Amino acid sequence: MDITELLKKEHQEVSGLFEQFFGGGTITRLVKRVVGARPPRRKAVAARICDALTMHTRLEEEIFYPDVRATGDQQLNKLVDESEREHAGVKEKIAKAETLLDDEALGETMSAMQSDVDHHVREEETEMFPLLHNVASDHRLQELGRRYAAAKRALKGGRSAARSRSAGKARKAAGAARRQASRTTAKRGRKRATAPVRNTSGSRKRKTSSRAKSTASASRQRRTRPRSTKRARAGRGR
Ligand SMILES: [Fe+2]
What we know:
Blueprint lengths: L2 H20 L3 H10 L6 H28 L4 H24 L5 H33 L2 H56 L2 E3 L5 E3 L3 H15 L4 H9 L1
Antiparallel strand pairs: 1-2
Helix pairs in contact: 1-3, 1-5, 1-6, 3-4, 3-5, 3-6, 4-5
This protein binds fe (ii) ion.
């Protein structure tokens, strides 16, 4: 797939996510706003939009735009300058959206983000891509598409590995907390078993566990037994 087809596909995916966020097209959105209906999971969809746009802007800046500039075409160069300025606006809105908890404010920020993205997409698809097709060979655009896709896979792989690492750390921390809680409970149990208690005369004595009591009883029995059966036998023999 050449780079322009690949980028158009990404634009469509983001556009679909915006539709999901707002719960339909402009008319559906207006109706829902009037009747007060809110599409479910708006925050989750907003997070997906921010993720997709963060990846898209980064890959365009690192892989696509340098190659477009390398064509040496002045008009393309100006269009890349314009696109990079638009990316800065989108990134600001992504950073804002990621901190918003209020649904109304999130809706306003996502709406402004959608306008920026629509404008950016229109410019790329109607001006930059056709011009690029005029100055770059199909082979070059295919090759750029392959490099872009490979970089995207690597970025996605890095992100999921980072997510797995943080999930693993969270599991370890939870396990350590459980073990610590279990040690504390066992320690408290041991303390209670030997806690000092007051007897009826008011003096303090150590409360002895039943196991300690049976050990003490066995020891008393040994002390009261005849001293030595061997000596007793010897006495009988005399
Ligand atoms: Fe784009």
